[in-house]
């Protein structure tokens, strides 16, 4: 056995022994609320298709949208960009998508945009480019619960001597104020997510922005899990782009597609065009994917308009609103109501991401398997995605879930938790884990 073969074998064995081994399942069918695996059907509570736009995608409707002149696509439009963006991969399709998004997010007139193949690539691309110079004193300040794409980039840049990375306590503006340097001559960047992907809670964006402005730092928001989903926002985001210097949108959640876009002042976008290797050296997003995002964005904008013609239906269990945005808000409110009534260990989230805190990785896997046996697919989240002792079930609510599906999930989940915890004598430990996580993310 070679050195690498031994290394690989030992690493996989260690993962297995720690109940942390991951596998990539192959599903026969997947939608926002249903999936089929190994011939068995499940109710899906693990999808990021929060508004059902991927589930509802209709190729016939999309083709008609193209033929009616809503799209720049022609019948012979290519399935791929055929080159990187600075060679011949950029097109009118890409430009129109950026323009549509700029309008949808109500961006300041000074803003422009740039497209990436994924949110991971975009986050890495912006940090790697902004902090490419080793000769300057540079700092990045990240929420401790930021996405791996952000934290990984900061860690590697620090190891290479490009910057100092400081991680502030989760959503703790006071702690950030103690770390950040009040010197506008320094290259400094504060980075947060709008909605945190594992806890489902929201960032204090206004307060973070005010602090960044006060000390002369740039401020970046990753809006992957927030874009398009607010029941209160009149537009596709409830973030005022005047408060943000760099703004990330991904297409794989509310927009039901694939890819990502970064928005910032034109000078920053020009800088990324020249220095972001992740942008320069990747084949560009395909034109047909650009048109798919535009098509779904038009449906999202229409849904937001419809939402505000249905004001007053929020939380009404008797009337099903037409707007997918309000349907989602209703479903989240209903889930939290009945989960609280059943004393489930929730975190304080009013978003589509509803973690059920368990703590122990093995117990979390067992509860997830119990749910599968009863026909429910819910993801078990374990270290290193979350801290040791904070394993959880990550329930994601979609607009297309029915109230009966949500109700049945809570009943089955309550039964599975009681069974496992009583068997292990841990009936009080989960509630303590939930309380600890909600109070302390150090």
From TrEMBL:
TM ranges: none
EC number: 2.3.1.47
Catalyzed chemical reaction(s): 6-carboxyhexanoyl-[ACP] + L-alanine + H(+) = (8S)-8-amino-7-oxononanoate + holo-[ACP] + CO2
Reported cofactor(s): pyridoxal 5'-phosphate
GO MF annotation list: 8-amino-7-oxononanoate synthase activity; pyridoxal phosphate binding; transaminase activity
Coiled coil: none
EC primary class: transferase
The entry's keywords: Aminotransferase, Biotin biosynthesis, Pyridoxal phosphate, Transferase
Pathways involved: Cofactor biosynthesis; biotin biosynthesis
Pfam family for this entry, one: Aminotran_1_2
Residue intervals of the Aminotransferase class I/classII large domain: 42-411
GO biological process: biotin biosynthetic process
Record-stated family: Belongs to the class-II pyridoxal-phosphate-dependent aminotransferase family. BioF subfamily.
Subunit structure: Homodimer.
Protein name (Swiss-Prot/TrEMBL): 8-amino-7-oxononanoate synthase
Source organism per UniProt: Psychrosphaera haliotis
């Amino acid at each position: 056995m070679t050195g690498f073969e031994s290394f690989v074998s030992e690493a996989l064995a260690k993962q297995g022994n720690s109940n942390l081994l991951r596998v990539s399942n192959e599903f026969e069918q997947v939608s926002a609320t249903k999936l089929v695996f190994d011939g068995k059907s499940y109710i899906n509570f693990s999808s990021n298709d929060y508004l059902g736009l991927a589930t509802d995608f209709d190729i016939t409707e999309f083709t008609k949208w193209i033929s009616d002149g809503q799209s720049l696509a022609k019948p012979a439009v290519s399935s791929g960009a055929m080159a990187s963006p600075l060679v011949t991969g950029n097109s009118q399709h890409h430009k129109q998508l950026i323009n549509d998004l700029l309008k949808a997010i109500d961006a300041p007139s000074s803003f422009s945009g740039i497209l990436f193949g994924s949110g991971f690539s975009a986050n890495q691309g912006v940090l790697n480019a902004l902090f490419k110079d080793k000769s300057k004193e540079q700092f990045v300040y990240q929420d401790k619960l930021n996405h791996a794409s952000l934290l990984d980039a900061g860690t590697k840049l620090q190891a290479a001597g490009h910057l100092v990375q400081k991680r502030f306590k989760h959503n703790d503006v006071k702690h950030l104020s103690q770390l950040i340097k009040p010197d506008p001559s320094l290259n400094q960047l504060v980075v947060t997510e709008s909605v945190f992907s594992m806890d489902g809670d929201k960032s204090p964006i206004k307060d973070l922005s005010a602090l960044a402005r006060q000390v002369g730092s740039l401020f970046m928001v990753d809006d992957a899990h927030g874009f398009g989903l607010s029941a209160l926002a009149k537009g596709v985001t409830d973030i005022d782009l005047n408060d943000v210097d760099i703004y990330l949108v991904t297409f794989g959640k509310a927009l039901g597609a694939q890819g990502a876009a970064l928005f910032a002042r034109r000078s920053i976008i020009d800088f990324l065009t020249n220095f972001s290797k992740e942008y320069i050296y990747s084949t560009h997003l395909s034109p047909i994917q650009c048109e798919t995002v535009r098509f779904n964005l038009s449906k999202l904008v229409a849904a937001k308009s419809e939402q505000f013609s249905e004001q007053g239906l929020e939380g009404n269990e008797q009337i099903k609103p037409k707007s997918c945005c309000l349907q989602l808000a209703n479903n989240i409110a209903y889930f939290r109501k009945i989960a609280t009534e059943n004393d489930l260990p929730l975190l304080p989230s009013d978003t589509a991401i509803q973690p059920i805190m368990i703590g122990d990785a093995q117990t979390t896997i067992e509860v997830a398997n119990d749910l599968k046996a009863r026909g429910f697919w819910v993801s078990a989240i374990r270290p290193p995605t979350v801290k040791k002792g904070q394993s959880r079930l990550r329930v994601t609510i979609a607009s297309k879930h029915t109230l009966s599906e949500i109700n049945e999930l809570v009943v089955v989940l309550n039964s599975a938790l009681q069974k496992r915890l009583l068997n292990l004598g841990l009936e009080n430990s989960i509630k303590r884990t939930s309380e600890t996580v909600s109070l302390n993310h150090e």
